[in-house]
Design goal:
alpha+beta, Metallo-beta-lactamase, Chain A, seven-stranded mixed beta sheet, binds zinc ion
Amino acid sequence: MGTALGLDLGRLEQNLRLTGIDPASITDVILSHAHLDHVGGVTRLDGTLVYPDAQYHMAAHEWSSGPHPDLRVLPVNDGLRQTFVTTAQRSLGAVHDRVNFVQAGREIMPGIQAVEAAGHMPGHTALLITAGKSKLLHVVDVFHHAAFDLAHPTWQTAFDHDPPGAYATRRRLLDQVCVDRTAVLAYHAPFPGLGHVLVNGPRYDWVAAPWQFEVQPHPPALGPADAVRSALWRPGQWTESPLSAGRPASTRPWPHRSAALRYPELRC
Ligand SMILES: [Zn+2]
């Protein structure tokens, strides 16, 4: 996101540092498409890179179309449209010499496969994340809100570049995750944006993963960075961000406690 839509946004870099992760240690950044809320965090206000040592991955078709003509046809007001264009130009221009063009159906890195999801943008790319037998589809902007385009799959947001194409992609991917019982990470769904999609006649239902907090002590020898690493995703279990428990990080007993979420196996 970055600060493209306001200086009170774009806290990812700050939050990474608070959890003991140096942004300079990030080795790979996957850019799903060129919309400002997906590329705006690449640079700071002064144009410097937030992740200076990373390689950036993006679909070639999106790279060539994102910062140029296609954003100019967004049916939004002139000021917002221009912000989309300038943010994409600034962010993608800053990483033009360190981009790896990804191909749908192929792994970007072990366990993360690019999934063709065109329509929302020409090279819009979803991500299939695999760990053992567990799979998670990061749908990015295949849908934006359960009450909107899951309950009414034919409805479109103003940000869909190709509405019929976006609809076809929505149908294809959501039908597939239901059949495969694949968990879904939905960027625009309410926090934590994790759940399953169920087919319900001509519509879809969003079944959000229920929260189950388990407060556990970490081994006292662990420092903040090690604590974060030890709490990363394991099959069937998600660990809450230390910054997202509804109160300021400074008042939480992190890293001595963590809160974990488990979700049940759901059936179509
Ligand atoms: Zn988008």
